[in-house]
Design a protein that fits this description.
By secondary structure, this protein is of the alpha/beta class. Helices cover about 45% and strands about 10% of the residues.
């Protein structure tokens, strides 16, 4: 029996990349999954991929930064699957106007970026939490099992009612130059996650965040093929103690754990799924990278085109 049998999930940005991997993983563990994305063709393809593999999935097209879409996706999940248990908030779409410092970024770009990076997560929780409360505890969990060395007493607190996993980034932990919108937004996701964990823990709903490192998604692979080369990709791999970059399944595995009943005592946490990249002192990485670049002068990375000039 799958760990999420009888439970349902909404995955935003669930057509491709990290979100696509999360949708497939939750479905493979028994969840009924609603994919929400602006890319209709890719969302439909991922839903059909899940169904073809024996899972349950549906999809919906919409911009989750819009309140009407946030409300509709929760209503659709409950209507189609009978309940709501899991919400994975992954959607984001950047653009060239998001690059820059506070001096360079235009107010409209700031508002749009923060609306999708942070505002959409607020809206998702706003409508998901009441639906999770109404759906009640995981039907496969025995809520009456409340014991432990004779110290527990009274009625048990609510447990395993719902799970929210918000997608932050290592860019929410460590900042890059001229990336005001993305870095600020992903850092704000961490604060929002902790606040929601405090607010919704008493309801039996945990809220955690994932901070991915460099994940090679479908689009990421296209960028590497268009701009980079093997030597450049190896430079990225050398930045990781595990000596590889990530794939969507690496993030999906962590999301599945945080959504499981085994993670019921974990909330308000930021799990860096980054191959150890963010734990290292920078001096050694810089010197090792220098040596590698000198030895491979023809290397190219996916950052080499369209990055723009830096003043830092």
């Amino acid at each position: 029996m799958g760990r999420f049998n009888g439970r349902s999930a909404v995955v935003t940005g669930g057509a491709l990349g990290i979100g696509g991997g999360c949708a497939r993983r939750l479905a493979s563990d028994g969840a009924s999954v609603l994919i929400v994305d602006v890319n209709e063709d890719a969302a439909a393809a991922n839903a059909h991929r899940i169904i073809d593999a024996g899972g349950k999935a549906s999809f919906m097209v919409g911009d989750v930064a819009q309140e009407s879409v946030a409300s509709e996706m929760i209503e659709k999940a409950v209507s189609e699957f009978g309940r709501l248990d899991l919400l994975v908030q992954n959607a984001y779409g950047g653009g060239a106007d998001n690059i820059g410092t506070a001096v360079e970024v235009e107010p409209d770009a700031w508002n749009r970026g923060m609306g999708l990076l942070v505002g959409a997560l607020y809206l998702g929780a706003k409508y998901a939490v009441p639906a999770m409360e109404e759906s009640g505890v995981d039907p496969n969990f025995d809520q009456s099992d409340w014991s432990g060395n004779g110290r527990r007493h009274g009625n048990p607190p609510a447990q395993n009612v719902g799970r929210i996993v918000n997608m932050s980034s290592v860019h929410g932990l460590l900042q890059a130059p001229r990336s005001l919108i993305y870095e600020s937004g992903k850092a704000a996701v961490i604060g929002l996650t902790k606040q929601m964990a405090v607010d919704f823990g008493p309801l039996g709903i945990t809220v955690n965040a994932i901070a991915p490192g460099h994940i090679v998604t479908e689009r990421g692979n296209e960028m590497w093929n268009e701009v980079g080369n093997d030597e450049g990709f190896r430079l990225f791999e050398l930045h990781y103690p595990v000596r590889r970059t990530g794939i969507p399944e690496d993030i999906a595995n962590a999301v599945a754990f945080l959504c499981s009943n085994e993670a019921s005592f974990i909330t308000g946490q930021v799990l860096a799924v980054d191959g150890g990249m963010s734990i290292q002192l920078q001096e050694n990485i810089v010197m090792d990278s220098k040596d590698y670049i000198v030895a491979n002068p023809e290397l190219r990375t996916h950052f080499d085109v369209g990055r723009g000039s830096s003043r830092f």
